[in-house]
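TICKET: design request
STATUS: open
ATTACHED STRUCTURE:
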């Protein structure tokens, strides 16, 4: 696979005011942020033409008629998701030829059809192809192909049977049973591995829009990151950050990024901390229906995260206490570290993955390992 990553160029722009807009994602309203605040630092851009990006991808170029057939003419009962981009339809194609098949046969796909009047436009559509057309990892949703025909913009993904983590955490429905502690920690680990891969890849990609609605689950609750429309190339050389428009979702974006427009991998780490907190508490990052003082999840929960006597106050009642208190404390402490106001005190995503891997082990195994390690240390001490 050829490497077709974008070059960098310098750009200057005067600061402008912060703007807000809302778009429907999943089952709720998400307040998104957008600003053109930039500094004189170099800004990653994609100077390549559309043709160059499309030619670099390892994707199938579907015709509009093929996708219309695969989705049964985009029938309303085929809709599996709605968002600021438009609608997502369920469809079927042959696993080998990738041609449309009869409903219920072949490979199940999700077809995202860009709404021409939506808040996500051609640039985000192209960014999806730019990244997912070149990157492959078990914890990134697989992009199979795209359609670029007349004014039609569509993307074709593998179908994720369980939908988004957001729905399972926050939607009250018989279709969405409360997630168990083990499943929540598995989702956290899978998502962390996806982010770590992006940060460690040759491209050093910053995801920029990490949130529960962008974490999709397959039939086995394996989690994969989706929606790369806001992803950006990370800093290169001796650069410490990328200066860019402030984009993302309120409640998830790192404070230093909101204040300066300086984007780093640690911005994603902060967002991960917010999501981990959502997994622990079953609360949304922002929820104005909560009592005064509890609207912002991070502000409300942070004082409890490192107090072992108060940790139960933030835990989701739907867990019904079915979790190890020690594991909950370690997960809460990890969230606290990820949410550090100063980004230099946040862990890397590799360190987050290591911590979460330890949390997958039963408490008695961890206890045995610690006791074994302490015994070895004591033995060495006695011999010295």
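STATUS: resolved
RESOLUTION: sequence designed for all positions
ATTACHED SEQUENCE:
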């Amino acid at each position: 696979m050829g490497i077709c990553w974008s070059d960098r160029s310098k750009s200057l722009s005067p600061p402008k005011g912060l703007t807000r807009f809302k778009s429907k994602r999943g089952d709720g309203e998400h307040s998104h942020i957008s600003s053109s605040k930039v500094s004189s630092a170099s800004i990653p851009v994609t100077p390549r033409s559309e043709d160059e990006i499309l030619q670099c991808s390892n994707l199938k170029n579907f015709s509009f008629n093929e996708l219309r057939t695969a989705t049964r003419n985009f029938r309303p009962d085929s809709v599996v998701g709605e968002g600021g981009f438009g609608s997502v339809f369920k469809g079927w194609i042959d696993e080998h030829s990738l041609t449309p098949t009869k409903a219920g046969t072949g490979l199940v796909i999700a077809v995202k059809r860009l709404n021409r009047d939506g808040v996500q436009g051609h640039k985000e559509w192209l960014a999806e192809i730019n990244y997912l057309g070149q990157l492959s990892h078990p914890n990134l949703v697989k992009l199979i192909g795209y359609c670029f025909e007349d004014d039609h913009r569509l993307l074709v993904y593998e179908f994720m049977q369980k939908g988004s983590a957001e729905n399972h955490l926050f939607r009250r429905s018989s279709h969405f049973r409360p997630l168990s502690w083990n499943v929540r920690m598995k989702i956290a680990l899978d998502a962390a591995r996806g982010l770590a891969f992006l940060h460690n890849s040759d491209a050093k990609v910053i995801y920029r829009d990490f949130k529960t609605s962008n974490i999709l689950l397959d039939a086995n609750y394996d989690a994969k990151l989706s929606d790369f429309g806001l992803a950006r190339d990370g800093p290169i050389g001796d650069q410490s950050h990328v200066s860019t428009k402030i984009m993302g979702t309120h409640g998830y974006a790192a404070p230093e990024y909101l204040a300066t427009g300086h984007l780093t991998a640690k911005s994603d780490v902060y967002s991960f901390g917010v999501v981990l907190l959502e997994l622990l508490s079953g609360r949304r990052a922002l929820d104005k229906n909560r009592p005064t003082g509890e609207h912002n999840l991070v502000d409300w929960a942070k004082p409890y995260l490192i107090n072992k006597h108060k940790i139960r106050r933030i835990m989701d009642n739907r867990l019904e206490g079915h979790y190890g208190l020690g594991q909950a404390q370690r997960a809460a402490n990890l969230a606290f570290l990820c949410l550090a106001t100063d980004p230099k005190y946040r862990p890397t995503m590799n360190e987050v993955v290591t911590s979460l891997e330890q949390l997958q082990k039963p408490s008695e195994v961890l206890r045995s390992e610690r006791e074994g390690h302490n015994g070895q240390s004591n033995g060495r001490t006695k011999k010295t």
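CLOSING REMARK: Residues 163-368 form a domain with the Transferase(Phosphotransferase); domain 1 fold (CATH 1.10.510.10). The longest strand covers residues 18-25.
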